[in-house]
Amino acid sequence: MNNIFHNQINRLISEIAYSHRELPLRISLDSSLLPNSDTIIEIIQLLRELLFPGYFGKQNIINATIEYRIGEVLIEIYEKLSEQVSRVLRHHVNPNNPFSGSVEQETERIIYEFLSKIPAIRHVLATDVQAAFDGDPSANSVDEIIFSYPGIFAASIYRLAHELYVLKVPLIPRFMTEYAHSVTGIDIHAGATIGSSFFIDHGTGVVIGETTVIGDRVKIYHGVTLGALSLRGGQSLNGVKRHPTLEDDVTIYSGASILGGETVIGKGVVIGSNVSISKSVPAGAKVTMKNPELIIQGRAPQEFTQDPIGDWVI
């Protein structure tokens, strides 16, 4: 430690501590009431083992001992998640977010209800995996999809986080989906409602907002935004449907933006790349941009035209 820093350290400590105490939006100084990010990631890894036994966590599991391993994992999840849920409930206790009974009782109820959803989550994830395999000709096996596809990683964490969101657990669901976002580049808010056989191909840059509703057998590509038209209303829009609805069997190609809480994309619609939509589209339509004029430079410039592929051109 050089002399300049040594002479200034007390002043730095005082100024930084003062900023912590005086800023009106400061983070709680009682860290025991905040979730631990490392522990939440550990819980995610344990839950993935529960969803896909043999793929993650302990391997060489056989049918004769699977109950034993499930029990081990459940106990570890229960212990870790109970502590984290208890923390956030204590941190978020306020008159507008009441719950009956003690924090311990509410934590116990939440953990039991959440873990009881695991079989249903596994069932719907199986349809997501199958949709990825059926929809991607480059996929060699279901194993490859479970191990390596970012869309399945993001969807599995979303489906877990969504159940905690429904149970009104603060902070943790958002942390879980943002962790998936940081790993995959896919941003799915835990509050979104997504049906079965959901497939995100490639995935980077996908954004799915909190009040989005997605039906069954929907496929979207990288760079798709399912967003809000305007957030100038800020917190006054909390709880208001701000994001679009996609009915069953919709396909949205890369770079498209579907915006607005009143926008409904009808059953079977196909939306082309780079389209921006803020109004509803009727069932069965195909929506594309008008083709730009392309020039191919060779020995002599040539016009290059393409035929539109859709019946809704914007």
From TrEMBL:
Coiled-coil intervals: none
Sample GO molecular function, one term: acyltransferase activity
* InterPro entries the UniProt entry points to: LbH_SAT, Ser_AcTrfase_N_sf, Trimer_LpxA-like_sf
Swiss-Prot/TrEMBL GO biological process terms: amino acid biosynthetic process
Q: Which SUPFAM superfamilies match?
A: Trimeric LpxA-like enzymes (SSF51161)
Keyword match Magnesium: no
Q: Which UniProt keywords apply?
A: Acyltransferase, Amino-acid biosynthesis, Transferase
Q: In which pathway does it act?
A: Amino-acid biosynthesis; L-cysteine biosynthesis; L-cysteine from L-serine: step 1/2
UniProt superkingdom:
Bacteria
What protein name is recorded for this chain? Serine acetyltransferase
Please spell out the taxonomic lineage of the organism that makes this protein: Bacteria, Bacillati, Bacillota, Bacilli, Bacillales
